[in-house]
Every structure is written in C-alpha cells, then in structure tokens.
Design a protein that fits this description.
With 227 residues, the protein is an alpha/beta fold. Helix content is 37%, strand content 19%. It has a single domain, classed as Alpha/Beta hydrolase fold, catalytic domain (Rossmann fold, 3-Layer(aba) Sandwich), CATH 3.40.50.1820. Strands 1-2-4-3-5-6-7 form a seven-stranded mixed sheet, with helices on both faces. The protein is globular and about 45 Å long. The two termini are 32 Å apart.
C-alpha cells in the first residue's frame, strides 16, 4: 500500500497531507513544533496497520509543504490549527476520525477533541501541555538558538526549510508559546479538557527535555476517564 501525497484547499490555504491504508478507522497524525507528516511520522506511515486504519499525516499551515503561507504564531494559533485539522479531514470525506498528536500537535488534538466532540472517535497525545509556566519559558528559551541543537534533530528540519526559515520560525515559536505564560494561569486549553468525551490515552516520556511530566498528569486528571 503506497503513500499518497497531495494538497487540498482548506480555510483559504493549501494544506499538504499524506495518506495510506484502507481501514475503516481513520486516524489523523498531528506533528509537533516545526514538524510535518514526513519528519514526525515516517515510521507510522510506513508501519501502522493498513488493513485496520486509514492514516492521514498533515503539515499544518506554514510547516512542511503547507508553505505558503509562512508560519506565524498569532494568539489563537492552536485553535486555528485545530480548525484546519478537522476541516482537512472533513474535506477528505471522513465523517469520524481519531487524533494522534505529539507536542504542539497534542495540544492541537486536545482542542479539536474538545471543540468538535461528535467528529472525534479516540484521542492519543504525547508530550503535550495545557498551560505554560515560567519554568517552561526558561526551557523554551534554551532551544531558541537552533545552532545549538543536536545534528540528529536539526538535520531533517534544515533540509526541509533551509537554515534561515528554520532558525527564524523556531525563534517565532518560542516567542509565540511563551506569550501564554503572561496570563495569570498560563492557560492554553485547560478549560477545554473537561469537554473531551472520547476515550483518551496520554503518553509521556520520563526524560522529555521540553515538557515536564506534571503537564501530562494535569491533562490526565482533567480528562474524565483518560488513561
């Protein structure tokens, strides 16, 4: 089963996605900061069960091959991504689908599951957070300068974007996500978590350098019945 690569117009932008499999259970893979389907989900596109699942991996606007437009981080960028993601799946004629989101894609998936409950079948998030603390801002500033990144992480992103776009977009991301910490509770989507009704599975890496484990525990505590 081959992987299709295509673009579709959604909310005034041309979003790139990859699709494979012919299973009855549709799944959308949501990449993390600066990521796209190919950089973040190559192994899943290749190895997930193609009989059980129809797998779609998308490039959010301004990332991967969904450029133009260039990526920006307006105050509502997570909500915008959530709407784009859901509208993309509807444009592809999926009536109901599951979300697998990592990092920023996990935040996007949480918002989508809360706001569009009738469309979301199941939810899996890893490396996600529902708020931003001052400690988080300190951690984010540690990755602001991409020249300090490890070669392994940096290389595929530099190949995709070129150094300038990669470096500038990373800085813009740090500024954009740090803005949430200016609110008293650092809230991104805490108030939406109780609205998530679908079966939810939260995964967290003990050694995650960017997202402290307390974030995963908070999400688990506030999504009823989550594991």
């Amino acid at each position: 089963t081959s992987i299709t690569s295509a673009k579709i117009e959604v909310n005034g932008v041309h979003l790139h996605y990859q699709q494979t499999g012919e299973g009855s259970h549709a799944v959308l893979l949501l990449p993390g900061m600066l990521g796209c389907g190919q950089t973040d989900f190559g192994p899943q596109l290749k190895s997930m069960n193609k009989q059980l699942f129809t797998i779609v991996a998308w490039d959010p606007r301004g990332y991967g091959k969904s450029i133009p437009p260039p990526r920006d981080f307006s105050p509502d960028f997570f909500e915008r991504d959530a709407k784009d993601a859901v509208d993309l799946m509807q444009a592809l004629k999926f009536k109901k689908f599951s979300l697998l989101g990592w990092s920023d894609g996990g935040i996007t998936a949480l918002i989508a599951a809360a706001k569009y409950p009738t469309l979301i079948h199941k939810l899996v998030v890893w490396g996600a957070n529902a708020s931003v603390t001052q400690e988080d801002v300190r951690i984010y500033n540690g990755i602001r300068d991409v020249s300090k990144w490890s070669e392994k992480v940096k290389k595929p992103l530099e190949e995709m974007y070129g150094h300038k776009y990669f470096a500038e977009t990373c800085e813009a991301w740090v500024d954009g996500i740090s803005r949430f910490a200016e609110k008293s509770d650092g809230n991104i989507c805490q108030q939406l978590l109780p609205d998530i009704k679908c079966p939810t599975f939260i995964i967290h890496g003990e050694k995650d350098p960017l997202v402290p484990q307390a974030h995963a525990e908070y999400i688990h505590k506030h999504i009823k019945g989550s594991r």
